[in-house]
């Protein structure tokens, strides 16, 4: 239970960062980008539990939850690689 609380506490910090990053994407209005991120978040909220349950039914619960952890790690690594492409570099203060 402790590790689950630690994971949920640390992943809750990602949402404000995602919303902030969405507002800074080049070529897209901030409201449009924020709406897209929120929509994807709601999709994950609605589709995630049934997909985890289906995966657990086909394999096992540890495998299903292991896949969730692996996908979270992949998002973290992939997101880090995308940051330079979508968020402009900050200029040095003059």
Describe the protein.
With 94 residues, the chain is an all-alpha fold. It is built from 4 helices and no strands.
Structural classification = mainly alpha
Distance between the termini: 50 Å
C-alpha Rg (nearest Å)? 16 Å
Count helical runs.
4
Count the beta strands: 0
Q: How big a fraction of the residues is strand?
A: under 5%
What's the helical proportion of residues?
over 70%
User: What is the approximate shape?
Assistant: elongated
Biggest sheet overview: none
Low-confidence stretches: none
- N to C succession of SSEs: HHHH
Oligomeric state of this protein:
single chain
Mean pLDDT across residues = 80
Short description:
The chain has 94 residues and is mainly α.
Tell me the layout of helices and strands.
Layout: H1 2-11, H2 14-23, H3 30-58, H4 61-86
Helix pairs in contact: 2-3, 3-4
